[in-house]
Amino acid sequence: MMVRDVLKTKRLTLRGFGDKKSDVDDLVKGCNNINVTKWLLLLPYPYQKKDALEWINHCQKKL
Question: Can you give the pTM of this predicted structure?
Answer without folding.
Answer: 0.73
